[in-house]
Design a protein that fits this description.
CATH superfamily of the largest domain: Medium-chain alcohol dehydrogenases, catalytic domain
CATH class of the largest domain: Alpha Beta
Largest sheet: 7 strands, mixed
Bound molecules: NADP nicotinamide-adenine-dinucleotide phosphate
Number of strands: 17
Strand content: 15-25%
Length: about 400
Amino acid sequence: MHVRMADSFMNTRAVVIALVPHRCAPGPYMAVGARSLAVRRQPSGLLHGAWRRPRGAVAHRGRPPSHAARRGSGRPPPPPTVIIRVHAAALNPVDYKTISGALSPFFAGPSADAPLIPGKDVAGVVTATSSAPGASPAFPVGTRVFGCLEGGALAERVAAPESLLSVIPDGVSFVDAAATPLAALTVLQCLRRLADEVGEGPTKALPSLLVSSGAGGTGSFALQLAKRVFGVPRLVTTVSAAKADVATSLGADETVDYKTTTVGHALGGDRRVAAALDLVGDIPGLLPGVVRGGAVVGIAGPFQPGQMGSWAPAGLPIYLRLALWAMCAPVNVRAALAGVHWSSLLLESNGRELAEVATWMTEGKIKPLIDSVHEGLGAATAAFEKLMGGHAVGKIVVRVVPEGE
Ligand SMILES: NC(=O)c1ccc[n+]([C@@H]2O[C@H](COP(=O)([O-])OP(=O)(O)OC[C@H]3O[C@@H](n4cnc5c(N)ncnc54)[C@H](OP(=O)(O)O)[C@@H]3O)[C@@H](O)[C@H]2O)c1
């Protein structure tokens, strides 16, 4: 991946990625601040429209809300939106998967030549809101907010629907706030599903849980949430030996060195767990460690065609459904033989659950594990390279505004 920084983009700066067809270049590369490209085509129209017209432009790509109303277009009104001055943005594997085009057959994403501002996790300060004059906005100007957006976080400014945001708790830094939404919300939704499926008693408590990759970006939140919020009495995770201490400090009761031991070997017989959370895309590898009647949720594939949620709102074409079905078939067989129910989950970002996460941060139950902080948008390349190495310990964050500014 090649990254180039340009000086300015509409008086602001953003990391803009141009996906270049293979006949032009060996792979996707980034052009940062490529003004003409970015102005011509935005993935969602957000930054461009938002910067120039903070209100209706955000939802209507340059047209104020009144424009649609006058034309009687029948479109729903734009969602309440804010402009955020970005202080920090965190990276997630989905960012480079999107850039590479690996997800484009499945999800509406950038076309081959479309520039894209990457980054979903954002933390910053509200500088404008779309609320009508006199109305009280959910997040007034000056509020510190964080959230998991559709994209565009690696920028100086981004427009964001209020529904995806929550207030950053007092005392929580922008870096910690940016590191949290996508990973914490994903594992929260997974844990809730597992508790629903195999939780015991009126509180649906999970008696035991196996989490793969407990020291990674999502795994580090999974261990903390499972132990300190869901109160799982027996929490096991697969990590390499060097990361066992980190996993233990995050709440793991037992660690399995995935480089030297299989889950089946470490957790066979009566050592099996009631539920498992697959964060590396190896559900069959976890099945031997789960009791018959137990459940597994996976977030790293394969994905069941009926469980794409809002990621494929119009449904998938038949050939993609068949492709997903074919990818799931071996897991279906292995899970059926093991007597374990398995499902896949794609995050549905929302500010409501993020507010719950914020409360747990305030209470000290969750503290993001930070792998590294990269200073300035110009350091985005280094941040991506670190992420794509696949060995991060916790989250990788780009600090857009220097601390204290
Ligand atoms: N479905 C969704 O909505 C959703 C949401 C978030 C993430 N995801 C997906 O979940 C996956 C994990 O995301 P992430 O942010 O946690 O990635 P990450 O932070 O980059 O994961 C890196 C960690 O994975 C560990 N690891 C690698 N292979 C492993 C294995 N076989 N067993 C145990 N640990 C292993 C590495 O440990 P070592 O250095 O010791 O190898 C490293 O600590 C990605 O594929 C991502 O796209 C999906």
